[in-house]
Amino acid sequence: MKSQILAKIKEIFFDPYRIVEIKENLEGQLVLGGTIYLGLRAGGEIGESNLCHEMAHLAEIDRERVFSQGWGLKNGKPIDFGDGTIIYQRTTAQHIDREIRVWAYQLNLHRYFHIDEDASALASSAPYLPDTYLAIDRLPQIKSIQSNNQRNNVFADWVARRIEQQSQIYTFEKFCQQWNGKLGEFKIF
Ligand SMILES: [Zn+2]
């Protein structure tokens, strides 16, 4: 993918550092040979906003997890059925809370680089995250809604509003501080 936006992102946030690179065909984050690769892919789609999402994860994550595969994030508590089947059960809404902070950073990156997707677009996948049913408890009014579709929409709207609010805290300036704070020692001079 060749675009002016991508070229600008690369120039500001990737070229100055030795250990972080953009990988077009990658979904998420991959650590290989001491390099952190951030992908442009999400499902079948390739785009700058997916890259911005992974960049936002790097800014949000604890310093010691920057070099952990997949940001060192767990899938939840493992439940072993004893027959070789293990499923992962989410027990807290930490995941969605983290995603909201990540989306807040991502929204500020979108604003800075003039990428169209707004808070509502970012929140549209929120109803389908694995721990959504835990976060949904925070909206008691949602329980009386019968239609699944409508419930998802109300939840996505609530997430979109939280992304907007948190974008005042997780600003572009703070993103830059976090990025450089974590990668600064790998800067090419
Ligand atoms: Zn994420």
Task: For this entry, give a set of tags.
189 residues, alpha+beta, 4-stranded mixed sheet, two-stranded antiparallel sheet, 7 helices, globular, binds zinc ion
Number of domains: 1
> What's the order of the H and E elements?
HEEEEHEEHHHHH
How far the N terminus sits from the C terminus, by CA atoms, comes to 28 Å
What proportion strand?
Answer: 15-25%
Describe this structure in words.
This protein has 189 residues and is α+β, with helices and mostly antiparallel strands. The protein has one domain. 44% of the residues lie in helices and 16% in strands. The chain has seven helices and six strands, in the order αββββαββααααα. The protein has helices at 4-14, 48-60, 94-113, 119-123, 132-135, 148-166, 172-183, and strands at 20-27, 29-32, 35-42, 45-46, 77-80, 86-89. Strands 1, 2, 3 and 4 form a four-stranded mixed beta sheet that branches. It has a two-stranded antiparallel ribbon with strand order 5-6. Strand 2 (29-32) and strand 3 form a beta hairpin. Helix 2 crosses helix 3. The longest helix has 20 residues, at 94-113. It is globular and about 60 Å long. The two termini are 28 Å apart. Zinc ion binds next to helix 2 and helix 3. The site of zinc ion (ZN) has 4 residues, from helix 2 and helix 3.
